[in-house]
Amino acid sequence: MGRYVIRRLLQMIPVFIGTTFIIFAMVHALGDPVAALFGDKAPDPAVAAQIRQQLGLNDPLIVQYAHYMKGIFSGNLGYAFNGQPVTELLKTAYPTTLKLTIVAFTFEVVLGISLGVISGMRRGRFADTGVMVMTLIVISIPTFVIGYVLQYLFGVKWGIFDATVPDGAPFNALILPGFVLASVSLAYVARLTRTTIAENSKADYVRTATAKGLPRRRVITHHLLRNSLIPVITFLGTDLGALMGGALVTERIFNIKGVGYYLYQGILRQNTPTVVGFVTVLVIVFLLANLLVDLLYAVLDPRIRYA
């Protein structure tokens, strides 16, 4: 196991470098960041040249990227155009988005898997049809539509939840945004769980466990569900990073100043250090989540061994 983890960590290095370089190049391709800094006003050529010199924008792209990577390993992700260190923006935004992701991920796991199990165990019945229709509707509707409708109904009309999230983003104010963020992924988890449960319910090991007289709940939780969760865990692992990076729409609807908010502002103003810094951390989260998923395979299925 230890050698496998070390090998996976080493494999992450070229993936991390390649991913961050692509993001770095794409952000630079958006246009001249100095012109974006001045907005609609044309900058003085002398001032613009001085800023480019200070930010190192006159260097070739590969040199700029090398300087950026050198800064990462020394804990310096650069400075936003307003002079604020990107690390300070990260400290402000990531705790908020992390709390939102925790709420959304809880909905996705608990509600998604529960609906999938109910649907898979009652295949072809009313409950199965209801879950399939409901998840299909959720998948078909864009997230921003779900967000605005639920915000109006539960936040404005009925007053059950806050329509917007106050500063500090307490967990109770993140319930509705978390559900909106998790809605589409929740539907996919339910359908994926339903399919694997329905397939594995006819497997020999399930029939054997049932023939031994084990209680139905034990057969489901200890045998059927455990073996059916491997593809679901794979989806959840990849979706964890997507939830953090894809919270832009949800954060805009509920006025949450998290990763999505700062990424949107950074892209709008072509603030290269901010965008690349936030995406770099997202890449690290995504890579670590995938490693955790691979390690969970051995926990769910004892037949899997890592050399």
The largest sheet, given as strand count, sense and whether it forms a barrel, is:
none
Please tell me the overall pLDDT: 83
Report the helical percentage. over 70%
Q: Would you tell me the structural class of the helices and strands?
A: mainly alpha
- Straight-line N-to-C gap: 6 Å
Radius of gyration: 23 Å
| Number of DSSP E strands | 0
The shape, in one word, is: globular
Oligomer: single chain
Strand content: under 5%
Order of helices and strands: HHHHHHHHHHHHHH
Number of helices: 14
Q: Which residues sit in consecutive blocks of at least 5 with pLDDT less than 50? A: none
Notes on the structure:
The model has no long low-confidence stretch (mean pLDDT 83). The protein has 307 residues and is mostly helical. The protein has helices at residues 2-28, 33-37, 45-55, 61-73, 86-121, 126-140, 143-157, 175-200, 204-211, 216-228, 230-245, 248-253, 259-268, 272-300. The longest helix has 36 residues, at 86-121.
Give the arrangement of secondary structure elements.
Layout: H1 2-28, H2 33-37, H3 45-55, H4 61-73, H5 86-121, H6 126-140, H7 143-157, H8 175-200, H9 204-211, H10 216-228, H11 230-245, H12 248-253, H13 259-268, H14 272-300
Helix pairs in contact: 1-14, 5-6, 5-8, 5-11, 5-13, 5-14, 6-8, 7-8, 8-10, 8-11, 9-10, 11-14, 13-14
Short description:
With 307 residues, the chain is an all-alpha fold. The protein contains 14 helices and no strands.
